[in-house]
Amino acid sequence: MSALTTPSRTKDLMNGMPLLCNGDRLDQPEFHRRYLQYPDHVKFELVGGIVYMASPLSLPHSDYDDEVGFILGLYRRATPGTQALHNATTILSEDDEPQPDLGLRILPDYGGLSRDQDRYVGGAIELVAEIAVSSRAIDLHAKRDAYKNAGVIEYLVVCVESRELFWFHFPDDTQLSPDKKGVLRSKVFPGLWIHAEALLDLDSAKVRRVTEEGLASRPHAAFVRKLERQRKAL
Q1: pTM of the entire predicted model
Q2: SS3 for 75?
Q3: Distance CA 82, CA 75 (A)
Q4: Is the CB of residue 184 less than 8 Å from the CB of residue 149?
Q5: How far apart are CA 149 and CA 55, in angstroms?
Q6: Does residue 64 sit in the same domain as residue 154?
Q7: 29, 38, 100, 224: most buried by Cβ count inside 10 Å?
Q8: How many whole angstroms separate alpha carbon 176 and alpha carbon 168?
């Protein structure tokens, strides 16, 4: 996500409602009411009670969004009871309605944290991912705090310009570290393995190979069985 600075124009209306302006302070219900008046291609987010308007997305953002989405898609296809998310509006709290670049959640019927709220995600999901090109400050501070406070378990940030990957595990207040082979392993989604350097290099062949190794691991097989037991218990 990238933020633009625009002047306040509270006198202007969109379908009879005040416009959303970058930097406005609103609660989630009022933000949502105004946001619904905009066409689908216009993107706003509410983070910590502050409105942010997204800028046009760059080619590097698109490349990394596609690569991380590929990983999460592979995981979802091999893990019944999970759902990969792409730019899905997430109603986190009275002050937060972000639209994360990507996410992975356990479905409510399988014991997941979140719920379906109208056509949107309600509450925290298990893993959120953001691609930071010009939005590094927001993604690593305001958004990080919002996700942590709402109960998100893991938060992955790919910082494109600095070639850094941050993977926070909020329950332990730690960052995941790569093993000797350079592989990062999710704690909340067993078998979700990402080779950090390969991802930053957009080395799709290596990214896929490591992801598939994780999906073939014993922890992933055990997690699939656990999800099935949770579904039957609910």
Answers
A1: 0.90
A2: helix
A3: 8
A4: no
A5: 26
A6: yes
A7: 100
A8: 6
